[in-house]
Amino acid sequence: MTDSEMVAHLNERVRNFKGDVTELERAIGAYLIGRQVGWKALLVIHDLGTIERFERVLGLKFEAPALPADSPYPPKTFAWLAAFEVEGFWGAVMREARRARTQR
Predict the structure, then answer these.
(1) Which of 95, 97, 73 is nearest to 86 (CA)?
(2) Alpha-carbon gap, residue 41 to 73, rounded angstroms
(3) Angle CA(13)–CA(4)–CA(20) in degrees, nearest 5?
(4) Distance of CA 14 to the CA centre of its chain
(5) Per-residue pLDDT tens over the stretch 53-103
(6) How far apart are CA 30 and CA 37, in angstroms?
(7) Alpha carbon separation from 47 to 7, 15, 35, 76 (Å, rounded)
(8) What is the pLDDT of residues 16-38, one digit of tens each?
(9) Burial profile 50-84: b = 16 or more Cβ within 10 angstroms, e = fewer
């Protein structure tokens, strides 16, 4: 998706959105940050349920090819650094998934 197509899509979602505007704002922010830091960093920052909710709000998948897997920026996020120091990417994601399931 080109930048102009993305802006047109997001504008359409904003025009037609019904619900809590803060959820729309968070979804747009996460998507735009994800374009810079990659979807792996978003999975460390947000739990899977939140990412899925954002995908529904925007009608976009938070994965390749829309979002890169990695970028030069993820190491700048504290959550990313902490996750890799302790257990690596997939270990951190699985830990978060287990934590999210136990909180439901």
Answers:
(1) 95
(2) 9
(3) 20
(4) 18
(5) 999 999 999 988 888 888 766 555 566 566 556 556 666 666 656 655 565
(6) 10
(7) 25, 27, 18, 19
(8) 999 999 999 999 999 999 988 88
(9) bbeebbebbebebbeebbbeebeebeebebbeebe
Tokens of 72: 């030069």
Kindly write down the DSSP assignment for every residue of 9-78, as one continuous string. Answer: HHHHHHHH--S-HHHHHHHHHHHHHHHHH-HHHHHHHS-HHHHHHHHHHHT--SSTTTS-S--SSGGGSH
Q: Give me the residue spans of the domains in the chain.
A: 3-103
Instruction: Write down how long the chain is.
Output: 104
Residue type, 40: K
Distance CA 55, CA 28 (A): 10
